[in-house]
Write a structure and sequence with these properties.
- The chain is of the alpha+beta class.
- The chain has two domains: 158 residues, no CATH class; 267 residues, no CATH class.
- The protein is 44% helix and 14% strand.
- The protein has 18 helices and 17 strands.
- The strands form five sheets. Strands 8, 13, 14, 15, 16 and 17 form a six-stranded antiparallel sheet that branches. A four-stranded mixed sheet has the order 1-3-5-4. It has a three-stranded mixed sheet with strand order 7-11-12.
- The longest helix has 24 residues.
- The mean pLDDT is 89.
Length: 493
């Protein structure tokens, strides 16, 4: 047996679902062949649980055969809210229960899945919950299945508006008119994403990107991948502190987990894209709350500040930016220092930051930003996130209304080439509508824009034609071409 990387995994998605006839026949076959020795009373419930597990294994295998599914196999995890809230809730629409454990065991006994028992961690090593993956017998059934990747989705009522408490646990809430409106908007956005082909031409098979060394990789000393898949486009809005006034950002979609180097290569419906982000958005929002249009009163980079012991100007800016943004989120100075040390990549920024130096940097920031100093170490960040989420909602809603693809990475947006001018104008409108201020700046990524194409094309026709041809064709891998063709065939594009 080939060694598996058990860290290369994701949790079991308890909302995986399909009403496709062949998918139901597939589940029936597995149930009747391998699991049907239970009472009729429990048959429907057990089959529903089996369906979730089988379809999620199928989705993982189809995109990346090396990917494992992480599952809890202790009854306590299903009763104390570790997996989801007790019983049926808006976060567990299919009412998946502890009996899922039995399904896993029966699939193991039938040699349909591989299994690696989890173990508790320690101060020395990191533990993990149990892992499963399709064994050869099940992959053969997957290969012969009469349904495909686009026939598998989520239950229709998978919740898109998430409310969490101070411990980041999901909590129930009562629907109100504005919450229903938010839910409908996100649902419509997810429908647009579902039919949009979102991929990277250079990614072959398996469709995944290995991330460069970063926080997660540094801590666990392991390789970290992001899978580029049709099934990882579902977006939710997450609110915090049991309040719909804190947080509310759009989360989800594999593009949020890759860095700018990969994001600039994203294609939507096989067109290159352009990314635009707000400059220093949270700092500008903090000034806006204080009644000040920052860019109208100060034409200076808010992160351009000195850091003692750091002579590289770019490093100074990056360190100051991280520290200032974290200071808006932190509730006190010690929490800020801890968060900064956890987030900083010391290999890229090889400096020592004792409390004395961080205190000095904090004083420097307050000195240069006196109008928002009262927000520093006050926990204001979640309130600012709520404002930027409403700006994001404004922009997304406009693109959805015209059936035009758009991706969000919190304070930046990615659109197909040719829509960047519209996006730029809309970002200004959204900021003004939400904050009642007009002073913003936006930055484009390095990708070619349609305006630039036209400008050069007017002077060099041959160059223009070559660029149009490149934009249309690019240099796709075989894997990319296959994924594009399958998507086009299914969605009739």
């Amino acid at each position: 047996m080939t060694d598996r990387d058990y860290q290369h995994s994701r949790p079991l998605d308890v909302h995986r679902w399909s009403e496709h006839t062949e998918a139901n026949k597939f589940v029936d076959y597995v149930y009747d062949t391998y699991l049907n020795n239970q009472s009729n009373e429990n048959k429907r419930i057990k089959k529903r649980h089996l369906k979730v597990v089988l379809l999620d294994l199928y989705v993982a295998w189809l995109n990346d055969p090396d990917l494992n599914i992480a599952v809890h196999l202790t009854t306590g995890a299903y009763s104390d809210g570790t997996v989801f809230n007790k019983g049926k809730s808006r976060y567990n629409e299919l009412n998946i229960k502890v009996s899922t454990i039995e399904i896993i065991h029966r699939l193991r006994e039938a040699d349909l899945i591989g299994f690696q028992k989890g173990f508790e961690g320690s101060p020395v090593w990191q533990g993990y919950i149990s892992r499963i993956w399709p064994a050869d017998k099940l992959t053969k059934l997957f290969e012969d299945a009469a349904f495909g990747e686009f026939d598998i989705g989520y239950t229709d009522n998978k919740e898109t508006i998430i409310l969490r408490d101070e411990d980041k646990d999901e909590v129930e809430y009562t629907d109100k008119t504005h919450i229903k409106q938010m839910r409908l908007a996100v649902q419509q956005y997810n429908k647009l994403l579902e039919k949009t082909f979102i991929d990277i031409q250079s990614v072959d098979i398996p469709a995944r990107i290995e991330l460069p060394e970063g926080k997660k990789r540094r801590r666990s000393n392991r390789r970290v991948f992001v899978n580029i898949t049709h099934h990882d486009k579902f977006v939710r809005r997450i609110f915090n502190n049991k309040s719909f006034s804190d947080g509310g950002r759009f989360y989800g979609g594999w593009w949020q987990r890759v860095d700018s180097k990969f994001r600039k290569d994203i294609r939507m419906n096989n067109l290159p894209t352009v990314e635009i982000d707000y400059s220093a958005l949270h700092v500008i929002l903090a000034y806006s709350e204080a009644g000040i249009d920052y860019w109208q009163t100060t034409n200076k980079d808010p992160y351009d500040l000195p850091v003692r012991g750091v002579n590289n100007p770019e490093h100074c800016r990056d360190i100051t930016k991280l520290f200032l943004l974290l200071s808006l989120n932190a509730s006190n100075e010690q929490a800020l220092y801890k968060a900064f040390r956890n987030e900083l990549n010391y290999r890229e920024y090889p400096y020592s930051f004792p409390d004395e130096m961080l205190s000095e940097l904090l004083d420097t920031i307050k000195e240069h930003h006196p109008d928002i100093s009262h927000m520093i170490c006050s926990g204001a960040g979640l309130r600012l996130m709520n404002i930027d989420s409403r700006i994001c909602d404004y922009v997304i809603a406009d693109f959805v209304s015209t059936d035009t693809p758009i991706l969000t990475v919190h304070d930046s947006f990615i659109v197909p080439i040719g829509h960047e001018d519209r996006l730029n104008q809309l970002m200004k409108e959204a900021f003004e509508d939400v904050t009642h201020k007009v002073g913003i700046k936006a930055k484009y990524n390095q990708n070619l824009t349609k305006t630039q194409l036209y400008a050069h094309g007017a002077q060099e026709r041959d160059w223009y034609l070559r660029m149009v041809n490149w934009i249309t064709k690019g240099r796709p891998t075989i894997g990319y071409q296959s994924r594009l063709e399958r998507h086009r065939e299914y969605f009739g594009q």
